[in-house]
Amino acid sequence: MHPFSYTKAADTRQALDAGRDGGRYIAGGTTLVDLMRETVERPRTLVDISGLPLREIVVTRRGGLRIGALVRMSEAATHRGVRALFPVISQALELSASAQLRNMATIGGNIMQRTRCTYFRDVTAACNKREAGSGCAALHGVNRTHAILGTSDDCVATHPSDVAVAFAALEATVVLLGPDGERTVPFANFLLKPGSTPNREQALRRGELITAVEIPALPRPLKSGYLKVRDRQSYEFALTSAAVALHIRGGVIHAAKVAAGGVGTVPWKLPAVERELIGKRPSNTLWAKAAERAADGARPLQHNRFKVELLKRTVERQLRVVGGGK
Question: FAD-binding PCMH-type domain: which residues (predicted)?
Answer without folding.
Answer: 1-220
